[in-house]
Amino acid sequence: MSAQKIVLGNEKDLSKPWVQTAELCHQGSLRRWKNRHAASFFYQQVISDKAQRDWFSDYLLRSEDFMFMVMLGDQAIGCIGIRLRGGIWDVYNVIRGVSSIKSAGFMSLALNMIIKFAQGVRSISIECHAVVGNSAISWYFKNGFEVVCARDGRIIMHHQVGRPSS
Ligand SMILES: CC(C)(COP(=O)(O)OP(=O)(O)OC[C@H]1O[C@@H](n2cnc3c(N)ncnc32)[C@H](O)[C@@H]1OP(=O)(O)O)[C@@H](O)C(=O)NCCC(=O)NCCS
Q1: What are the DSSP E strand ranges found in the chain?
Q2: Which CATH class, in words, describes the domain spanning 7-123?
Q3: Predicted local confidence at residue 163, as pLDDT
Q4: Using CB atoms within 10 A of its CB, is residue 106 exposed (0-12), middle (13-18) or buried (19+)?
Q5: What are the per-10-residue average pLDDT scores of the chain (166 residues)?
Q6: pLDDT at 2
Q7: pLDDT of 162
Q8: CB of 129 closer than 6 A to ligand 1?
Q9: Is the CB of 113 under 6 A from ligand 1?
Q10: Is the CB of 106 under 6 A from ligand 1?
Q11: 9 CA to middle of ligand 1, Å?
Q12: Is any atom of ligand 1 closer than 6 Å to the C-beta of 142?
C-alpha cells in the first residue's frame, strides 16, 4: 500500500540521496515541480491546489503505486513515481525539483534504488513513457533503459534488467 511509509537508503549519509514515499507535507513541492516542468509531460494542464489534494487522496488508496521523494539530508530534491500498470512497473513523474543541485547523479542513484525496491515487490518488466523530443530520454539510456517503440507522440522504453547504469 502506498499509504504505508517506505524509506530506502541511509538518511544520515549526507553525500548520497535516500528516498521516502511522499507524505501530505510534500504536496506543495510535487505540485510546484510538476507545474514548472509541465512541458516535459503528457498532462500539461496547470495543477491547482485542490487538484493536487484530490490526486493525493486517491493516490493513498491505490496499492502498488509509490510516489517517492528523493531526499538529500532533510531536503526534498526531486520525485520519482513507480506504479503497477497492465502487469508492468511504470516509472512516472521523474523530476529534479531543485535546480541548484546540478546533475550530480543523485536522481540516477534514487532511480536505481527504486527499481531494486520494485523488483523486490514484483519481479516484472519496468517501462517508462516519455514525450517525443524530451531530452531526458538520454538520461534514461544512461540508466539502463532502451527504446521499445514510439507511438502517439510518446517514446516507450523498457529497463534492461541487470544492465548497470553508467
Ligand atoms: C531527467 C532529470 C530528472 C535528470 O536529473 P539529473 O539531476 O540531471 O540526473 P542525474 O544527476 O542522475 O543525471 C546524470 C547524468 O544524466 C545527464 N542528464 C541529465 N538530464 C539530462 C537530459 N535532460 N538530457 C540529457 N542528459 C541528461 C547528465 O548530464 C548526467 O550525465 P553524466 O553522468 O554523463 O555527467 C532532470 O533533467 C529533470 O528533472 N528533467 C525535467 C523533467 C523530465 O523531463 N522528466 C522526465 C519525464 S519522462
Answers
A1: 7-8, 18-21, 65-72, 75-85, 88-96, 126-131, 145-151, 154-159
A2: alpha beta
A3: 57
A4: buried
A5: 83 94 96 96 94 96 96 96 96 96 91 97 96 96 96 95 55
A6: 58
A7: 61
A8: no
A9: no
A10: yes
A11: 21
A12: yes
At residue 166, the pLDDT reads 44
Atom of ligand 1 nearest to the CA of 111: 12
Compute the distance from residue 107 Cα to the ligand 1 centre, in Å: 8
Domain regions of the chain by residue span: 7-123
pLDDT at 32: 98
Q: Is 15 in the pocket of ligand 1 (CB under 6 A)?
A: no
Q: Is the pTM of this model over 0.85?
A: yes
Instruction: Give residue for cell 503497477.
Output: 84
- Whole-angstrom Cα distance, residue 150 to residue 157? 9
